[in-house]
Specification:
This protein is an alpha+beta fold. It is built from seven helices and twelve strands.
Amino acid sequence: MNWKIIRASMVGTSHLENGTVCQDCCWADEIQSSDNKHYLVTLVSDGAGSALQGAKGSELSCEILLASINHAIEQQQNPLSKSNVIEWIKITQQAIILLAEKNNLTPRDYACTVLGAIITAEEALFFQIGDGAIVVAQRDIFGVVFWPDSGEYANSTYFITDENALKNLRITHVKSKINEIALFSDGLQHLALSYDSKTPHPPFFEPMFTVMRQRKTTNCDDLDEQLKLFLSSDAMNARTDDDKTLVLATY
């Protein structure tokens, strides 16, 4: 597999005004197993604005989930198994509980959403707790994997630290070739999605994917910097004051 990948997390203007750091975290790369199988692994986590340590919660969630996925790949334990995802979430929750106890805090102080995707040449696994979204392209079909989960009340969502987090964990496994994928936190969902039709908003994605498709090399590190500039631009900040994370990958 040869995935071209770009990713960035940028602090929102509301956080800058409050003197708080970016509470989003992301990770994306291609991992090769010992039996020469390739996996695109992408993760996004958004720390709750109301959580005292939301930034640390999102960082730790990405760290533990990535370590768990890596272990499954290394041990050839089928990283595309739904049951494995459930175990990874439990392991991440336990890590957050231990960190909270160490710092005399509660797990809710580390509240964050999580989105993840693991993709091979023939199949893919997606999982999510909370809002934000995963958008995929399969041939000419462009769709949202899970619609952002707004929770029980207005302006709320679900977090990995919730006692009933597993009840709100959404997982799907598909046996088909995914050509392109985007993951983003809720700071971008009103720009990247059409709420009337519950579909992706192509004008948001196409300019960036077009540039990536034209690259003759998989090295897109310079585009990471351009993505950061785009996410922190005046035009973007005029439309959303929240932290913004975007991961894009094209095959």
